[in-house]
Design brief:
2 domains; globular; disordered N terminus
């Protein structure tokens, strides 16, 4: 069997592009567009749906996010994290009593009496989980093929390849977003957007939208990432505002970019600028205070009202909600969004630093869900978390180090919530030879029991991607099982 290597995704797209360009014999920009259109098999969207990726930059500490709570596993967790056996906070372990208010109550209890609680600051997400609007995918991370610990530690890389550059921030961020290490130019969110472009008719430019700057996640073969700020579309100052107090300069600049040019590159630059101006007008008109969406939805964004302004994730998600509210004026039926929060690389000061971010994530995602409910689209919008990697169960003294697999949240009205998916890992540092150590590769780093490709395939299928289109989006998916496979299903089942 031939296993697709990480670099093959970008190489395959490049070769496909080159072959198509050879056929066109046309000018480069036109050829690129035709090539992309030719390869993107579209699906017909009859209603609205949106995917929202919430990326936690730096590698979120999964052990203090979804925390072992039952006495047996809490004692193991606390002892390994430096808290001792007293069930009180110590080292980088959270105290058991502090977790009582965020205890999770799944519909189907876990085997062996296992229980989990969320970080004490995550009351909002706990409430969503226990009400059935959120689920947790356990121990998910990048994999090329299914692996056992013995295969990970072995030398047969031809048969059991590893994701490249494990434990590296930039590379693992890229692999989560695109299946390839740093330098990748195509992400699976953008590839999903490729398939959705035809459903958005005149709003195709707004298919993939980032509220947090550039990210490979939203870059497709054809779809581009349209970037906005938490305040709205970014204006081109010199054509919208007076320059050095002069309206004449502003008007002259606007006239220059509106004129057709005989030189190809100049003309293309003007076309791009004109498109940017038109897009800014559409976006800010759609979300503005005088828009139909804003006036008809007074109070529907109220869940964000009490969140402090330093919660930048909440500001980004509020903008996503405003864009979703404007979906009709923007002519969009399918959208993929990207938001993010940084500050998770906590090699030291873990317990103090994590508190702030856990509160921000919980407040922002809870307010976002409630707002989609108020807008009447809760079942049409699915938000999910991702991060560079999980972190070590062991403490380095005041923090935790780079890991691999981690636990992630899926939130929305379509989520099969109040449930854990995947395999909860034993609380162990993986130094033994027993079955409990299968999912550990040292220091409590988790060998993922579910892959990013499976996670993404589940989200993409809900979004409308057909089974025969998944392999073109997720290059490693074919190395895993069928939808009905017991150990490594293509669909993880949370939607």
């Amino acid at each position: 069997m031939h296993f697709i290597q990480p670099q093959d995704h970008t190489r395959r797209a490049f070769l496909r592009r080159t072959a198509q360009l050879a056929f066109t014999g046309a000018a480069l920009p036109t050829a690129l567009n035709l090539a992309a259109i030719g390869e993107a098999a579209a699906f017909n969207a009859t209603g609205y749906k949106a995917l929202v990726c919430v990326f936690l930059y730096g590698g979120n500490d999964n052990w203090n996010t979804v925390v072992p709570y039952d006495n047996t596993n809490y004692d193991l967790y606390s002892t390994i994290r430096g808290g001792g056996a007293g069930r009180t906070a110590g080292g980088v372990a959270l105290g058991q009593a502090a977790l009582t208010n965020t205890l999770l109550a799944p519909t189907t209890p876990l085997a062996n009496g296992r229980q989990f609680a969320l970080h004490p600051e995550m009351v909002g997400l706990k409430n969503l989980f226990n009400a059935g609007q959120a689920a947790i995918q356990m121990n998910v991370g990048p994999l090329v093929v299914p692996l056992t610990r013995a295969q990970y530690e072995g030398s047969n890389r031809a048969l059991y390849p590893l994701p490249p550059k494990l434990f590296s921030h930039n590379d693992q961020q890229s692999i989560w977003q695109s299946s390839s290490p740093e330098g990748s130019t195509v992400g699976w969110g953008g590839n999903i957007g490729d398939l959705a472009l035809s459903s958005n008719t005149t709003g195709s430019l707004f298919t993939c939208v980032s509220v947090t700057g550039n990210a490979v996640f939203l870059s497709g073969d054809q779809a581009l990432s349209y970037q906005v700020s938490s305040s709205g579309a970014v204006k081109i100052d010199c054509v919208t505002n007076d320059v050095y107090g002069s309206a004449a300069i502003k008007n002259a600049m606007r006239d220059l970019v509106q004129q057709a040019r005989t030189e190809v590159l100049e003309n293309e630059y003007n076309r791009v600028t004109q498109r940017s101006i038109a897009a800014e007008t559409s976006i800010n008109g759609g979300i503005g205070p005088t828009s139909a969406a804003a006036s008809a939805n007074t109070g529907e964004f109220a869940p964000f009202a009490g969140i402090p302004g330093n919660n930048t994730l909440a500001g980004q998600l509020k903008m996503v909600a405003r864009l979703i509210a404007a979906r009709n004026s923007l002519s969009t039926k399918r959208q993929v969004f990207f938001v993010s929060l940084g500050g998770f690389d906590l090699h030291d000061n873990l317990t103090a630093g994590h508190v702030t971010n856990m509160k921000r994530v919980s407040e922002a995602m809870s307010a976002f869900y409630q707002t989609t409910f108020n807008l009447g689209v809760a079942s049409d919008v699915t938000a999910f978390t991702a991060s560079d990697f999980g972190r070590t169960l062991t403490s380095n003294g005041d923090g935790s180090d780079h890991g691999w697999g981690g636990d992630h949240f899926i939130v929305g009205g379509a989520v099969k919530g109040k449930a854990f998916y995947g395999k909860p890992a034993p609380v162990s540092v993986g130094n033994g030879t027993g079955a409990e150590d299968q999912w550990h590769v040292g220091q409590g780093r988790l060998l993922p029991s579910s892959s990013v490709d499976q996670y993404a395939a589940t989200l993409a299928t809900w979004f409308g991607v057909e089974a025969n289109e998944l392999a073109g989006i997720l290059p490693f998916l074919r190395n895993f099982g069928s939808p009905n496979a017991v150990d490594y299903p293509i669909n993880l089942g949370f939607l």
